[in-house]
Structure formats: structure tokens, C-alpha cells
Amino acid sequence: MPRQNVLVTAALLLSAIWGAFLGSAHLGGGATVLDRPEASLTDLKSTLIGRRTPPPVVTIAAIDDRTAAAHGYPLDRATLAKAVTAIAALKPKVIALDLLFVDPGSDAADSALASALQLAPSVIAGAAVFPQSVQFVGNEANDPLAAIPVAESLLLPQERLADVAATGIVNVSTDQTGVPRFIPLLSRGEGRIDPSFPLKAASLAIGHDPAFQPGAIAFTDTRIPTDTGQRLPLTFYGPRGTIPTVSIADALDGKLTAQEVADKVVVIGSTVTGGGDVFPTPFDPVLPGVEVMSTAITHLVAGDSVIRDHNVRRFDATLAVLLPLAVVGLLAWRRSVIGFVMIALLFVAWAGVNVAAFRQGYWLSAALPIAAALPPALIFGAAQLFTDRRRARLFAAQSELLQRIEAPGLGEWLARDPSFLSHPVRQNAAVVFIDLSGFTGMSEAVGAVAVREILSGFFELVDEEARAHQGAITSFMGDGAMILFGLPEPQPDDAARAAACALSLAERTRAWLAANPTLPTGHKVGFKIGAHCGPVVASRLGTGNRQQITATGDTVNVASRLMEVAAGRGSEIAFSAALVHAASQGGTPPAGGILEGPFETRIRGRAGGIEVWLRRQQAA
């Protein structure tokens, strides 16, 4: 399997494992590390949806600043009894007091309040005290109450009041930012289970006790999904005052109307400035606690709470696996502008679905898919970047090597046009062959290591001269080389550069042989050069990854045979008359050494003769 495929497969597998891990924690409600980003994103969704009109279920009777100014604060129980009596006279469904009556009041005041509470179905508040702010719960399938934490103690109302009114626990579950996110519908104490304040008020308003089911509660035909631990998810309708609110002062002054109270759940609670019972929400930084309770009661009675049950969490967990797979797959498929645009569109589409689902009452996790997709995408992207840099360094090294082997400019040409010479091209070119003579016998005497050093020095010399004259070394053949002039495109001075290269090669090779200490004494090593120009067929030879740029044709054969002519006549170089004519633009032989000719000679393997010039070393 190719290395890239191995990397992609490993990235997809690890992404799925990471997403499954987070999804599993989310299913059990244990992904607490995501609570803070989830809270921020949920607040953003609430803000985008905006303020909503609540169903006409609850009216808040507030102990507000006006009440405190007229009757004092905290409101004494005798005065509160008068307010309850006034409200009960207007026929509410339920009167719910979001107030704690833990300590006894005066006998007369408590008696008056107890009497008032009997005038209408009523609920009073209790509270659960936990040893820690975060409760850790079990998840045993055989214990339906395992997910409900056990309170260290309960703050319950005075027995006189509890005897005439139902009791509900007012605890809320907040996130790390302090925003109420859930209402625990049940609270456990030692030897007892109590309903929440909103649940008890809603039960009295509906006229039925709820039936608890796995992940839901039901009032007759209405089923309300709940989250882990029988918690009711909260979403707020707007800032303070969104739920209809009246003042207790109006109730005491006889100014309440039946339209404001009749057939409603009337929740009495404190909204006085500095009262302390406030919470931050997406719409209001100091929403009174009585409005939190009223929101939960409205959700339960109207059945409009947002759904975040096990099925929604299962969908979140599935998305936590699929989204990182999609992102990594897109990165592997198209690491380009198109790929990144597709990834961006994928996230935009997911964000749109998330907000639309929230608007329709489904709380899909926003933080979980991001946490599942972002780390694999960043790690895979970094791995791809590292791989690309390694590949780039490899390509650079190969390009550098190519530049050393090919003529200057030929490597760049191949990089710009990978199809260069993929089909044979017939064109004019000049060809120079050079070969060491007597080298085979010498190599038997000096051994392989010395032969390698000698050939390395010789090839470096040839390479330098070829590059200096802009020729392309198309091949090294044993102890010889072929240099082509005319690639990547024919030039008018190809023949002149070929002749100049041949003369420079002769001078440098002679000096190199004379000064090379590696050559053994007693073995004479010489060289021969042949140079010719004319039409050639330039092409690539080989298939697949094994290809070589070269030239073939009669011109190449003649240039090669001219080395035999040079050696047979005791010369260093044999130029064809055609090359001399093209190089001199009129027939004047190239300068350097002693040139003899032209004269006609026969070429092995060729029927006709050819005119040549010979070049010998100039006498010292």
C-alpha cells in the first residue's frame, strides 16, 4: 500500500476512535470538559433565535422594589398571607411560593399563612444541600434513580405550612458560567424523594401526577423528554419581564385584575434589587430566580421545552464520528482551495442545521462535533504538511541532481513541461563523444576503488565542460560520455558551442591525465573525441519511472565513429566538415591546436565517405 494511503487510513481510523471516545462520554453526560464551550455556543444560538413570547401559563407576583418600599423587606409572613389571600380570590390554578420557610415565624403569622395557602392549590419551596457544587452520579440500568444525586441534607418548610401545601425543591443545575441549563425534576434525600418546585406546580396545574419513564415524564397524553438524571433542559424566552409580572404591592392594594391571575400558575418570588437570587442568561445578566422557576413551569405545562434526551445525544455521538471522518477525507482528497471551501461549507451547513434544530426545539451539541473534528483535522493537516515538506525536499534534491546531470535549463524545462519529449522529435543538433583509450587494461591493474576515483574525476570534468558550453550529457557510457547540443530547443550556435566544448575537453583531459596521481605508471591512457552535427531524433527511452533523454540517428552514429577516426590517425579530435562549416559560418576551422583537413574518410557501417578535420596537440 502506498505511504500516502497508509497515512490517510491511519488518520481516518484514529479520527473515528477519537470521535467515538468523545461521543461515548457525551452519551453518559460525562464530557464536562466541553461544558464551557457548549454553554457559549448555546447562548449564541439563543441570541440568534431571539426573544419569544411565552405561552400564557404563568404570572409572576413579584416582591419587587415597590413592595419592599411600601411593606419592608423581607416581607413578613402576615403580609404575605394577605397577598396570597388576595391572589387566591382571583381563582388562579396554582399559587407557588418560591420562598423558603425553614425557620418558624410568629404563631399568628404562620397560622395566617397556612390558612391562606388552603384557599387555592399551593406549592412552597424547599432546597437540597449537596457537599459539592458538581454532583457525580451512577448509571446503573437496574436502578432508575441511580442518575439522581443524593443530597447531604434538605431545607424543608415548617411542618405547619407543609401540611397544607405541597413542597417542591427549587435547586437548578447551572453550567460553569452560572447559567441555569437544567432543572432536576427529582431530588433524593436520606429515605425520601421529592419533586422539583416546577414539577409540583405543573402537576397541580395539569391535575395529574407525572409518570416517569426512561428519559421522559408523561402527563396523561403529553410526553416531555428529559436529559440524563431526569433533568429538564431550560431555554429562556427573553430577559426579565418576558413572563408576565405583577407586583405584590398591587395584590395588597387590591389592584390586581382577574385577567392577570385567573386560571394561571401564580409564582410568588423576590425580584427586589440586591436580593441575591439572580442568574445570568443569554438575554439578561441578572435574571431573578423566580423567572427561572416560572420558565421551567411553563415548559412543563405547555410542553415546549427543548429536547435533549438520549436519542439527541446518540445523534450527537454519531455526528462526532462522522464529521471528523468527512473533514479528514476531504483533506486527503483535495488539499486545495476547493477542498478547504468544501470543508468550510460542511461546517457552515452543520452550523445551520444546529441552529435550525434549536429553533425547532432540539438541542444538538455544538461543541462536541467541533471537539471531535478539530484535533484530527489539525493533526492530519500537520502530518500532511510535514509529508509535503519532506516530499518537497526530496523533489528539490532530485531537481538538484537532475541539474547536475542535465544541461543548465533542461531540468527547469522538464519541471515546467513534464511531457517534454514524451513523443520523439526530429531536429538539428550537434553531438560530441569523448572516450578514454587504454582504460580497460589499466583498470585491471589498479582495482575497483581506484577505477571509481578516476572515473569520478573524469565525469566531473566532462560535466563542468558540458555545463560551461550549455550542452546536455545524455549518457555516461563506461569510460566515455555523449554530449548533445540543441536541447531543450535548437539554437543557431549549437555547432559552435559543440566545437568549443570539444577543444576545451581535449585541453583539460590532457592536463588531467598528466597530473592524475592515481594513474599507474606503465599504462598509457589517452582519449579520443568525435564531433558531428545534423538531424537527430530526440526522445525519451524507457518506460515508467526508468526513462532517459537521448538522441538517435545517423548523426549520432557518425559522431561516435569519428572517435575511431581520431584514434586511427593519432589525433585527439575528429570534427566532421559539416560541424566545422556550421561552427565557423563559412568554413574557417575552429582555433586551437593543429587542424588538418579536410579530407575524406570512410566510416565503419556507412556506405559513403565523409569529410573530416583532425586536431592534434600543438607542439610545445
Topology of helices and strands:
Layout: H1 3-27, H2 35-49, E1 58-63, H3 65-71, H4 77-88, E2 94-100, H5 107-117, E3 122-129, E4 153-155, H6 159-162, E5 166-169, E6 173-174, E7 180-184, E8 186-189, E9 192-195, H7 197-206, E10 211-213, E11 216-219, E12 222-225, E13 231-233, E14 245-247, H8 248-252, H9 258-261, E15 265-270, E16 278-279, E17 287-288, H10 289-302, H11 310-333, H12 337-359, H13 367-405, H14 410-416, E18 425-437, H15 439-446, H16 448-468, E19 472-477, E20 480-485, H17 494-515, E21 526-543, E22 546-552, H18 554-568, E23 573-576, H19 577-584, E24 594-602, E25 609-616
Parallel strand pairs: 1-14, 1-15, 2-3, 2-15, 3-5, 21-23
Antiparallel strand pairs: 3-4, 6-7, 7-13, 8-9, 10-11, 11-12, 16-17, 18-20, 18-21, 19-20, 21-22, 23-25, 24-25
Please characterize this protein's 3D structure:
The chain has 620 residues and is an alpha+beta fold. Helix content is 44%, strand content 23%. It has 19 helices and 25 strands. Strands 18, 19, 20, 21, 22, 23, 24 and 25 form an eight-stranded mixed beta sheet that branches. Strands 1, 2, 3, 4, 5, 14 and 15 form a seven-stranded mixed beta sheet that branches. Strand 2, helix 5 and strand 3 (122-129) form a beta-alpha-beta unit. The protein starts with a helix and ends with a strand. The model is unreliable at 135-141 (pLDDT under 50).
